[in-house]
Design brief:
two-stranded antiparallel sheet, binds nicotinamide-adenine-dinucleotide, binds magnesium ion
Length: about 350
Amino acid sequence: MSVVHVDAQGGAYPIQIAAGRLAQLAGTVPADTSAIAIVTNPTVAALYLAPVKQALAATGKPVHVIELPDGEAYKNWESLNLIFDALLGAHLDRKALIVALGGGVIGDMAGFAAACFMRGVRFVQVPTTLLAQVDSSVGGKTAINHPLGKNMVGAFYQPIAVEVDTDVLKTLPAREISAGLAEVVKYGMIYDLDFFNWCEEQIAPMRRLEQEQIVHAIRRSCEVKAEVVSQDERESGLRAILNFGHTFGHAIESGMGYGQWLHGEAVGCGMIMAAELSALVCGLPAQDVARIKALVQASGCPITPPQWPADRWLELMQVDKKNEGGQLRFVLLDKLGHAKVQAVAPDVVRQALARFTTV
Ligand code: NAD
Ligand code: MG
């Protein structure tokens, strides 16, 4: 088994990565736990609830199941309240353990519920999408959406453990795998040239979910994210580099209408655009831009952005959280494997956009 130790302000915890982890979940339940509540959705429950329930029942503790509707559209107050209704209805107390079984949507909501219920109960992340395994389950951010914005209501709250079972990836649609891989290769681009080189060589086996490669990809991704986050838990500086490709990516997601492109797909394409901008602003060599493009393509994500006029792009990117005082700010690569955040004048952004669009 591969283990990544995360040392966060809110507590230290292990990320345990291996095939067959679901069957071992009893081992992560603290002895003084009074009851266990699994939070999941019908899609994941149909595939994995039975083995997870069975594994947790071995502790002898009562096990409750809370099923929320599946989808980003349900990452809201109503679902959060369903969790509280169920926890209170079953008379769970401060010693309850919440188990988040699902992708990033379930993990973010169950984590936020754990942060709030009784002012904080312990929770375990059991991420079942590649994106959740390499990104959302690490770093302690939990949230729900508000009609006025994504992830606008939430808390920093750490799990007591993250249990990554690589077997569950076998039921994920290929598009979801590719979208998760975009975030994987991102860690190489922003932080670790050796890992980028390795991804270039191993992208095909990763897509086929070959055990050795997928475990290494998840492990290194979690390590890089944990390292970056530990230096900047509350996102005052360094943590922003994790958003490489996300300014263009968010514009694609919102401009196309949420759900048309998967988040990771938009980020993949956005990283190619951010690489071109890096070439213009900080001299990233053309051959490195080409390598980034080739790796995104090999991960199975789209590489051609929507054909919008520059004004539309700029308008869509105006709302980005990194912007300060009306200035557009981007995560850029000053070299492959190293990122920084910088303000860029609109004219320069237009120049970069002109390399992608014909309108
Ligand atoms: P998701 O949770 O919606 O899962 C995608 C789909 O796959 C869903 O329909 C889900 O039911 C299904 N699914 C899950 N596991 C499966 C499996 N093993 N087999 C088959 N189907 C499965 O989406 P996601 O991409 O995992 O997560 C996206 C969410 O994560 C967003 O809400 C985003 O805001 C959040 N996020 C949070 C952080 C953070 O730091 N907290 C970081 C990145 C993303
Ligand atoms: Mg992302």
